[in-house]
Design brief:
The protein is mainly α and 254 residues long. The protein has helices spanning 3-7, 18-32, 38-44, 50-76, 81-95, 103-113, 118-123, 129-144, 147-152, 160-174, 184-207, 211-240.
């Protein structure tokens, strides 16, 4: 089996319509989104200790803080001013604006509320190597692939609201060191993600006009689900199985 066949999850028959494309994208999300990962089941079910939750929030910060960089790269791919204007609010959603709080600040409130030092979190010194490689690969993907694939890779947002809802309720229920204030990142994204996902879905349905382009869209989403999944693989290996690599964050003894 060649590498392309290993990577592709596009339908065995070529996708002949926008409706078939959407159905396949939703199938990819239903079978590959990182909500299915065992680490998330532990996190949301109250099965992790505080140090393990800290490790998750610390590593995830690197992903969150890189999203506006990724989105700036996406914007740079388009001559169409309307698309740049539409995509620009994503950067403000995460970076904030003068006098307004963004998602990165809200994530730092989460890590601070969990007892981590902001300077340490922002330095990314303690993140896992796999976190860095996966997140950086995402930036490289939107830089090097087609603009259509760059937009398609964001479609994991279609599946995010349900995960955020599960995370909010599960973590508030099970962890005494978690409170609603430090979970505001997720409640805000439940409003933002559907807007962003709907635009991206409409774009790929309109602009992927051939079976080959529709397959490329599906493979872009597969790539993104892999980016998210491998970060949780690394967290599980390091902080559940106990194989923390040199230089990575080591939780305080419980």
């Amino acid at each position: 089996m060649n590498a392309k066949t290993d990577f592709s999850l596009a339908a065995s028959a070529p996708l002949q319509s926008a409706e078939q494309l959407e159905a396949q994208l939703r199938h990819i999300g239903a079978t590959r989104y990182h909500s299915l990962h065992p680490f998330h089941h532990l996190l949301h079910g109250g099965k992790l200790n505080k140090g393990q939750v800290q490790a998750w929030a610390l590593n995830r910060y690197y992903y969150q803080s890189t999203i506006p960089i990724k989105d700036a790269v996406v914007i740079s791919r388009f001559r169409d001013r309307g698309i740049r204007l539409e995509w620009r609010h994503r950067i403000e959603d995460h970076d904030g604006n003068i006098g307004t709080e963004g998602g990165i600040e809200r994530w730092l409130k989460l890590t601070e509320g969990l007892g981590l030092d902001n300077a340490y979190v922002e330095s990314a010194e303690g993140i896992l190597p796999a976190t860095r490689f996966a997140v950086d690969a995402y930036v490289h993907f939107v830089r090097d692939k087609t603009p259509l694939e760059a937009i398609a890779s964001s479609l994991t947002e279609l599946f995010a609201p349900n995960l955020h809802e599960e995370r909010i309720s599960g973590m508030l229920k099970h962890y005494g060191f978690v409170n609603p204030d430090i979970m505001r990142y997720f409640s805000r994204r439940m409003e933002q993600a559907p807007r962003d996902a709907n635009f991206a879905l409409k774009y790929v349905k309109e602009h992927a006009t051939t079976p080959a382009e529709r397959e490329a869209v599906c493979n872009a989403l597969i790539f993104k689900t892999n980016v998210l999944w491998v970060q949780l693989d690394a967290l599980y290996h390091a902080y559940v199985d106990g194989h923390i690599p040199p230089g990575a964050f080591v939780p305080a003894a419980n």
